[in-house]
Design brief:
61% helix; single chain; 2 domains; alpha/beta; two-stranded antiparallel ribbon; 13 helices; 7 strands; Rossmann fold; 323 residues
């Protein structure tokens, strides 16, 4: 999956920084070792000299077998002496050699010309971080969700929704069902969606959350700048591939045929791939059909778990309490 040049460049820069830091820490330890044991530095210089001799023998075209064998044995003896001196001075191989964050590629990002998984994962993490930069997870947890703002039957109804959401988060997996949260503003739809995100992220899954308007703007911007359609845009690729996608305030975005088609493609493709999506909106099923299309509404009606949020605006209740 493509993440764009900026994400790729940032990921490479991060890996280069990790590699440089690991090498600098090891070099500092080696330099300190050399101050304590000059003989160790002599050994390293001799090994480097032997390396040059090996290259010269190979390039000379002469029969170098005997010379190479001699140099090999000499280097083995030198390395054994070096290791012995290191132990005597309290140093380990771990301290004197770079400790890379990725042992497969040594933080280079590639193995035999192929991208290492560490570079792929780092791009994914950077892309998710950018899309979730304003994610207010610290304010939205299950423990912070209070049922005291719901009265009578509304409280019982919301208790069932709350219980379902906590189970959903606890049992989340890559093929979990998609959810549709419908209700007026201020009834807790976003809070519970983000509470689920909190738990799912803690399990190590990749989550993308945003108001639908932000997604729409990103898609339109990429189409304008690069002439892409939604299938090849970086934003759409990330929205399609993440483990859990949360689309907040569906219906508040600036409507256009391009955005509507992109949203349908997004929802339909994730359903086919069995990737869970959570949508919150104040639109009814009839509103969805009128605004988007009959097939759009049909996908939601037939394949999403639907939850009706009821009660009175919690924000207004809290505002009244502060007076």
């Amino acid at each position: 999956m493509g993440y764009g040049k900026q994400v790729y460049s940032k990921a490479l820069t991060e890996l280069e920084s990790r590699r440089r830091d690991a090498m600098q820490k090891a070099d500092a330890q080696v330099s300190y070792f050399f101050t304590l044991c000059p003989r160790a530095e002599e050994i390293r210089q001799k090994q480097a000299s032997n390396g040059a001799k090996v290259a010269k023998a190979v390039l000379s075209g002469q029969s170098a077998k005997a010379a190479l064998e001699k140099l090999k044995n000499e280097n083995l003896a030198l390395q054994a002496e070096f290791d012995k001196l290191a132990r005597e001075h309290g140093f380990t191989n771990h301290q004197l050699n770079p400790q890379y964050s990725c042992t497969k590629c040594d933080d280079k990002g590639f193995i035999d010309g192929k991208m290492c998984s560490c570079l792929k994962n780092l791009q994914k993490a950077i892309a998710y971080e950018r899309l979730n930069v304003n994610l207010p997870l610290e304010n939205c947890s299950f423990s912070a969700f209070s049922l005291q703002y719901y009265q009578g039957e509304s409280r019982q109804h919301m208790q069932r929704i709350f219980d379902y959401c906590t189970r959903y988060a606890a049992q989340f997996h890559e093929n979990a069902p998609s959810l549709f949260f419908k209700g007026r503003t201020g009834l807790g739809k976003t809070h519970l969606a983000l509470a689920i995100a909190n738990e799912v992220i803690a399990k190590g899954y990749g989550v993308i959350y945003s108001a639908v308007q932000n997604f729409a703007v990103s898609l339109e911007k990429e189409r304008f700048e690069r002439g892409n359609d939604w299938e090849t845009s970086d934003t759409n690729s990330q929205l399609l591939s993440c483990d859990l996608l949360i689309i907040d305030d569906l219906g508040t975005e600036f409507s256009s045929s391009y955005v509507n088609a992109a949203l349908y493609n997004l929802i339909n493709t994730r359903l086919i791939a069995r990737k869970p999506t959570i949508i919150s909106t104040n639109l009814s099923m009839k509103d969805l059909e009128d605004r988007y299309s009959e097939r759009f509404a049909s996908r939601i009606a037939g394949q999403y778990g639907r939850f009706e949020f009821v009660g009175n605006d919690i924000r207004l209740q809290k505002k009244e309490q502060r007076k």
